[in-house]
From TrEMBL:
Belongs to the short-chain dehydrogenases/reductases (SDR) family. Keywords: NADP, Oxidoreductase. GO terms for molecular function: oxidoreductase activity. Pfam families: adh_short_C2. This is Glucose 1-dehydrogenase. The keyword Transmembrane does not apply. Transmembrane segments: none annotated. It comes from the Eukaryota. It comes from Penicillium vulpinum. InterPro entries: NAD(P)-bd_dom_sf, SDR_fam. The keyword Protein biosynthesis does not apply. The lineage of its organism: Eukaryota, Fungi, Dikarya, Ascomycota, Pezizomycotina.
Length: 279
């Protein structure tokens, strides 16, 4: 059977772990070629070994490579996009890299340097990725291309456990993505935001640690009683990346187990979580 992304060339930022790594594996399963990028060289090399063991070269039609990219550095993003010129040009970019800094907090607590750093990675990184993707799509005469930008559920609902810079940055991702989607709609370039709920990835789980109270404060809001898994986000990304979603544009694509639609949540045991592909 032909993969849902057969022959497409993709870049994923923040691909060394979490959502980015799960998405890499699924994209390869679906026939895409993937350039995994991340700020962490060691993380990328470890992730690539994992990818090669889960999707061995003999089972895939696309290629996979790694490249160190700091998304807050425009020339590095530009070079990553240009790297795919030799592959036939970019078709998909998943602007997924993001940080949630432990020193972030409410308006009094968040230091200015943390505010700037968060904006540089979470907002400017998405802008640079989108900008150079559009240039590449045009350069290669692409008529069907997809940009997926990772925002967050916290851009849609307020939280009494504030991380103001992070929340503001993700709100900016939603607004920017929506506008880009409309600007480029007649070129066939689609832009959608992914809005994950709190997940079982290092970004959040390292921060929560063993603090049961902090953990429960969040878990109680999940209708399913559990955090989301990165593979559950990755499946949504595959849909948004593929031509199956050709009429899905400018959405805040929420993958949250119903969290943002819940008033009072059910009691009882949590639902079973799917196994992540890189687990
Ligand atoms: N984990 C959650 O609860 C959650 C919820 C909503 C949204 N998100 C968003 O999902 C995205 C992916 O996060 P994740 O949960 O998979 O976390 P993660 O920490 O596993 O992955 C983030 C990756 O981004 C990389 N990165 C950090 N700064 C970078 C930079 N300047 N340039 C390039 N790469 C950089 C990290 O090295 C890491 O590999 C982020 O944008 C995050 O804000 C996460």
């Amino acid at each position: 059977m032909v993969g849902r992304l057969e022959g497409k060339n993709a870049i994923i930022t923040g691909a060394a772990g979490g959502i980015g790594l799960e998405t890499t594996i699924l994209m390869l399963h679906e026939g895409a070629s993937v350039l995994m990028t991340d700020i962490s060289d060691a993380g990328l090399n470890k992730a690539l070994s994992k990818v090669n063991s889960v999707v061995p070269a003999s089972t895939r039609t696309g290629k996979v490579e790694i490249k160190v990219v700091d998304v807050s550095n425009e020339s590095q993003i530009e070079a990553a996009v240009a790297h795919l010129d030799a592959w036939g040009g970019l078709d998909i970019i998943f602007n997924n890299a993001g940080i949630m800094h432990p020193k972030d907090g409410d308006s009094e607590e968040c230091p200015e340097d943390i505010w700037d750093r968060t904006m540089n990675i979470n907002v400017k990184g998405v802008w640079y990725g989108s900008k150079h993707a559009v240039r590449a799509f045009r350069r290669h005469g692409k008529k069907r291309a997809s940009v997926i930008n990772t925002a967050s559920m916290v851009a849609l609902v307020g939280a009494a456990t504030p991380q103001l810079a992070y929340t503001a940055s993700k709100g900016a991702v939603l607004a920017m993505t929506r506008e880009l989607a409309i600007v480029h709609a007649r070129e066939g370039f689609r832009f959608n935001s992914l809005c994950p709920a709190p997940l079982n990835t290092p970004l959040l789980q390292d921060w929560l640690g063993d603090d049961k109270e902090k953990r429960f404060r969040r878990e109680v809001h999940f209708p399913t009683g559990r955090f989301g898994e990165p593979v559950e986000q990755a499946h949504a990304v595959i849909f948004l990346a593929s031509d199956e979603s050709s009429f899905v544009n400018a959405t805040d694509f929420v993958v949250d187990g119903g969290l943002t639609k819940a008033y009072v949540t059910p009691e009882g045991p949590a639902t079973e979580a799917p196994r992540n592909l890189a687990a």
